[in-house]
């Protein structure tokens, strides 16, 4: 998802620049002003409530704004991202927007501030008033709107300046030039975006080989906590010794150790296009930990894939593997295989269920040959890459 807010005084050219942004980045446009004017024209309860405030050039209440934004977001669950015009308009609304973004498991990537001096705004709005038919495009109300902007809206900039995702653009230049500068700023954000995938599937579903192939194909870092633990043991590192002790005692490796390994991998791969997590998170606790790790790196999960393979087929595959030299210590007996499948059902399925409530989980048929499954998974990933293009 790509989420952008366009900021600037009335008459800065936000509407004009929006048209270009929506088309180029395939965003859903939310203009609180347009929505309010529509409500007003249809004389809805909400429109009538806002009417006198809009006519005076004041700001309507946050309650009304939250209602209309929530409704619009809810009605467009498949949007690639949102372009906000006229919101957030107060520093309170900046906090509200952060909250709404968390609910959508996304964030505001960039606030673009189109800067225009007051007299230029007045000149443009008076000109627009000759044809717009807007009840607030007249001299007195325009001054009021600009006063509201100075007093209530400008503090929003401090919020985003502190967060570091704000870009000022000079709005008193040719429209085309403003557009070019905006697209340079947005492209920079798009380039920074990572693709972080969590790959789920029962033992034997092909997660390991697929995960590795996907990482290579899309230039992502493969994060397999199991592999990382094995590597520590075989290298005989300090961590590896601790892990081995746990393994030998039949204990689970603690979350403290796994967090250190994931953090290290993420720091080492600072410039990665993204990460693909396999075998993590395995428990609800670990799902919260992963959210925490990603948050810390200002990243989010963009895609969740679940490989779906029937239980009988899983048992068949694991049993076959146990007879080859690829046999893992944990595949070496039927009892162990059953235990792993049970662990997956009892501990990991609830994690997938949790994700299904907040994310779009792509369930991919994991039977058939490797190439076919790889094709299905690639199609899922490419649809997400498109969303970031
Ligand atoms: P605009 O089309 O963005 O210039 O908005 C027109 C009018 O709608 C404003 O002068 C406000 O009265 C109202 N309005 C639009 N967006 C908001 C908002 N986010 N918060 C409060 N009032 C708003």
Keywords summarizing the entry:
12% strand; 389 residues; Rossmann fold; five-stranded parallel beta sheet; 17 helices; alpha/beta; Adenylat/UMP-CMP_kin; single chain; binds adenosine monophosphate; 10 strands; 2 domains
Total DSSP helices: 17
Q: Kindly, what is the distance between the CA atoms of the first and last residues, rounded to a whole number of angstroms?
A: 10 Å
* Gyration radius over CA: 26 Å
* Domain unit count: 2
Backbone structural class? alpha/beta
Query: How does the overall form come out from the CA principal axes?
Result: elongated
Overall pLDDT level: 91
Order of helices and strands: EHEHHHEHEHHHEHEHEHHHEHEHHEH
Region (NMP): 31-60, 224-253
Binding site for AMP: 32, 37, 58-60, 86-89, 93, 134, 145, 225, 251-253, 279-282, 286, 340
Pfam family, one: ADK
Main location: cytoplasm
Q: What's this model, at a glance?
A:
With 389 residues, this protein is α/β, with parallel strands linked by helices. The chain contains 17 helices and ten strands. It has a five-stranded parallel β-sheet, sandwiched between helices.
Architecture overview:
By secondary structure, this protein is of the alpha/beta class. It folds into 2 domains: 4-192, P-loop containing nucleotide triphosphate hydrolases (Rossmann fold); 197-388, Rossmann fold, CATH 3.40.50. The chain is built from 17 helices and 10 strands. It has a 5-stranded parallel sheet with strand order 2-3-1-4-5, with helices on both faces. Strands 7-8-6-9-10 form a 5-stranded parallel sheet, with helices on both faces. The longest helix is centred in the C-terminal third of the chain and has 25 residues, at 334-358. It binds adenosine monophosphate (AMP). Adenosine monophosphate (AMP) binds next to α2 and α3. Keywords: ATP-binding, Cytoplasm, Kinase, Nucleotide biosynthesis, Nucleotide-binding, Transferase. It holds the Pfam family ADK. Catalyzes the reversible transfer of the terminal phosphate group between ATP and AMP. Plays an important role in cellular energy homeostasis and in adenine nucleotide metabolism.
């Amino acid at each position: 998802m790509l989420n952008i807010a366009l900021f600037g005084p009335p008459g800065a050219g936000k509407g004009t620049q929006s048209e270009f942004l929506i088309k180029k980045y395939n965003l859903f446009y939310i203009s609180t002003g347009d929505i309010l004017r529509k409500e007003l024209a249809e004389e809805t309860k909400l429109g009538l409530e806002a009417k006198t405030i809009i006519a005076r050039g004041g700001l309507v209440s946050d309650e009304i704004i939250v209602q209309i934004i929530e409704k619009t977001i809810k009605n467009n669950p498949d949007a690639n991202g949102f372009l906000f015009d006229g919101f957030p308009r107060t520093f309170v609304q900046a906090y509200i927007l952060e909250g709404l973004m968390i609910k959508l498991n996304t964030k505001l990537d960039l606030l673009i501030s189109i800067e225009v001096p007051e007299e230029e705004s007045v000149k443009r709005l008076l000109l627009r008033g000759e044809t717009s038919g807007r009840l607030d495009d007249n001299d007195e109300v325009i001054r009021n709107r600009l006063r509201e902007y100075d007093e209530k809206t400008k503090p929003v900039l401090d919020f985003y300046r502190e967060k570091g995702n704000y870009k000022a653009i000079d709005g008193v230049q040719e429209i085309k030039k403003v557009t070019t500068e905006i697209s340079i700023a947005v492209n920079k954000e798009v380039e920074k975006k990572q693709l972080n995938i969590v790959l789920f599937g029962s033992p034997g579903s092909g997660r390991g080989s697929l995960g590795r192939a996907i990482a290579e194909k899309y230039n992502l870092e493969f994060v397999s906590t199991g592999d990382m633990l094995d590597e520590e043991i075989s290298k005989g590192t300090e961590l590896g010794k601790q892990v081995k002790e746990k393994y030998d005692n039949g204990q689970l490796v603690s979350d403290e150790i796994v967090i250190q390994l994931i953090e290290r991998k993420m720091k080492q791969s600072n410039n990665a296009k993204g990460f693909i997590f396999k075998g993590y998170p395995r428990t609800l606790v670990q799902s919260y930990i992963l959210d925490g790790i990603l948050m810390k790196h200002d990243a989010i999960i963009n895609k969740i894939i679940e490989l779906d393979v029937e239980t009988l087929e899983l048992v068949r595959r694991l049993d076959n593997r146990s007879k080859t030299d690829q046999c893992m210590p944990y595949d070496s007996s039927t009892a162990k295989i059953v235990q792993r499948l049970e662990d997956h059902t009892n501990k990991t399925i609830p994690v997938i269920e949790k994700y299904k409530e907040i994310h779009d989980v792509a369930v991919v048929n994991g039977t058939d040959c490797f190439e076919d499954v790889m094709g299905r998974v690639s199609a899922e990933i490419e649809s997400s890459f498109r969303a970031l293009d």
